[in-house]
Amino acid sequence: MDIDEFFKRPTPLFILILLIVILIAKLLRLETTDYLITIMFFIGIAMALNIIMGFAGYVSFGHTVFLGISGYVFALLVYYNRDFANLMNMYSGIPIFFIALLAGGVSALVAFLVGIPVLKLKGAFFAIATIGLDFAALYIIKAFIPILNPEFFGAQIILPAYALAYKDNVFVAMYITFALIIIANYLIRRSRFGMGLLAISEDEDAAEALGVPTTKYKLISFALSAFFTGMLGAVFGLNSGGVDENLFNLAHTIDMIVMIVIGGIGTVMGPLVGSIIYFILYDTLLVTYPEFNLVILGFIVAVIVLFAPRGVVGILRGKQFMGKKLRDIIE
Amino acid sequence: MTILTDLLINLTSGFLWGTVLGAVSVGLTLIWGVMKVVNLAHGESILLGAYVVSALYLFLNVDPLLAMFVALVSGLLLGFAIYWLGLHKIIGHVDVVTLRIEMSTLLEMFAISIILYNIYSFLTRSEPFGIGIWHLTPISYINLGYMSIQVNHLTAAALSLVATFIIYQFISKTPTGKAIRAVMQDSQAAALVGINPVRIKMLTTVISIGFTAFSGFLVVLYESAVVPSISYKYAPLAFTIVVLGGLGSIIGSYIAGIIIGVTYGVSKVIFSVLVSKNASDPLALTMAFIILVLTLLLKPEGLFGVKR
Distance between CA B29 and CA A148 in Å, rounded? Predict the structure, then answer.
């Protein structure tokens, strides 16, 4: 694919603009660093879940388990290893990214091992099993973390001063992670692997019959998705100054799934647009109707599932623009 | 206290809790088994009944034994609303339910659960709300020497048995119940012999959500007060129980509920010896989900389900 064709497509252009806008907002201090980190976290978890839910069609309700596992791994690593902790404020935060890679790797490993049996399940059974896994992991962490160290009362780890990083360094780590996730999403969508996943989401048996190695593809996409989710959980935990059982909260699952459903399943643009819409709605509703913001969001999702099952981007993809089918150019 | 008495106490309390869990899961097994609607708003339906009974008792001093019928009616109304507002457009047809439709119902019920959950949180400010120390008899505990049993727990167990028996009779004996089972097996064939599957689907939603709200009364009787986040405890357990008991099997759900309850009680004792007292409760709950994954992999049709 040559450069000209690349820029005729809205998706990579959108990704590029998004990355530049966030960078400019940071450099010109248009928004606080915390706000930008939160935005990237929200968009990131939607894009990470998108690899398994959007492309392969496997709705995972237990994805917060990977936020939790990696969050805890990261916190324990910097809590007990002063070398890691000292590194975090050097080289403008790049080491944070590498420690997050490590923490994400643990999640990927867990996802791989768990995925071997669980990905045999289809549809609702897979969703239910992942909910079960989330609670199992939560209860195990609740049981063992306080035994590890009495200071972790109620499975809460508050990072001490030596294990904290400057906000700017956290921003750099989050920015690299975020860029990695959305670019990986785009590349996967355009690859043979991504096509295989989409085939699985359409009809798994037919895909298998046509020679798509479904088991392998599902496992890889689940592990990749867990890996990215885990990295975000690790950096976000550092940004919050500690981790507790709330990382396992189903509320994050709600966020991820709602963002993908609003935007549209099976696309890269979908969760990107969906998470931006979600974040803006959430943010404005939180100010105007603090008690009802989630009620209103629930209504929006209910209406979208009923009347636009393919989301906002799905509607766009069905339209034509300047004689071109938008389906062909929006990934 | 020796381990043996500890085991006996936990076995008894686990059994009693298990009967409540069984009754809680019956509504889910109906809606999921018959219509392939993955009711992620199950926990919120339970809470509706719990809150209706508690509110009537606290504000109007209505006897909970009377209020439980109001809880049932409120659940029937909620089921009616959920069907016509949320589900009819997705499942209101005769055709076979595909995987894609199943996932749509899952997301739709998920949205409904978000709405209900946050309404409850707003109304109760997430504080415990319940019938407290209400009990049927003048005494609140029955003393059996080395252990005492709460009267409320016994009442909940007895009521759960009666209620499950009634709904089982309804499904297996009445014409409507037979039609429901026919639609569960094959909705197109049912339509050919003159059953209206859409009407049956509506009825099933109404009945199962109604029964779930009624079981919410048992939950508040057992727990004496509820918070919205209790749905995160009961709903996943209910899914585990339904899978273990077999989709669509009422007796299976009830027995599986008892199995999960007893497993919880026994493993709590084992873990408190092996690990620590504080860690025993979360680890015992983990057992339920290990059972869930094992069932899904080894015997996906469940203990009493029909193999497809």
Answer: 40
Amino acid identity of residue A8, one-letter, is K
Q: Where are the domains of chain A?
A: 32-248, 251-331
CB contact under 8 A, B114 and A301: yes
Q: What is the mean pLDDT of residues B63-68?
A: 88
Separation between Cα atoms, residue A161 and residue A158, nearest integer Å: 9
Q: What is the CATH number of the domain that holds B17?
A: 1.10.3470
In sequence order, what DSSP letters do the residues of B120-168 get, joined into one string? HHHHHTT--BS-TT--SSS-SEEE-SS-EEEHHHHHHHHHHHHHHHHHH
Write out chain B residues lying below 8 Å of A294, CB-based.
114-115, 117-118
pLDDT at A124: 80
Q: Is residue B307 part of a domain?
A: no
- Name chain B contacts of A252, Cβ cutoff 8 Å: none
- Opening angle at CA B149, ends B143 and B150, nearest 5: 115
Residue B279 lies in a domain: yes
B308 lies in some domain = no
- Range name among A186-200, B65-79, B121-135, B210-224 with the lowest pLDDT average: B121-135
Q: Say if residue A196's pLDDT is above 60.
A: yes
Say what the ipTM of the complex is.
0.84
Spatial contact of A48 and A201, defined as CB atoms under 8 Å apart: no
Q: State the first-to-last Cα distance of chain B, in angstroms, to the nearest integer.
A: 49
Q: What is the number of domains present in chain B?
A: 1
Assess A219–B contact: CB distance below 8 Å, yes or no.
no
Amino acid B298: pLDDT: 85
CA-based nearest residue to B257, from B20, B32, B7 = B20
**Which residues form the domain of B77?**
3-298
B170 part of a folded domain: yes
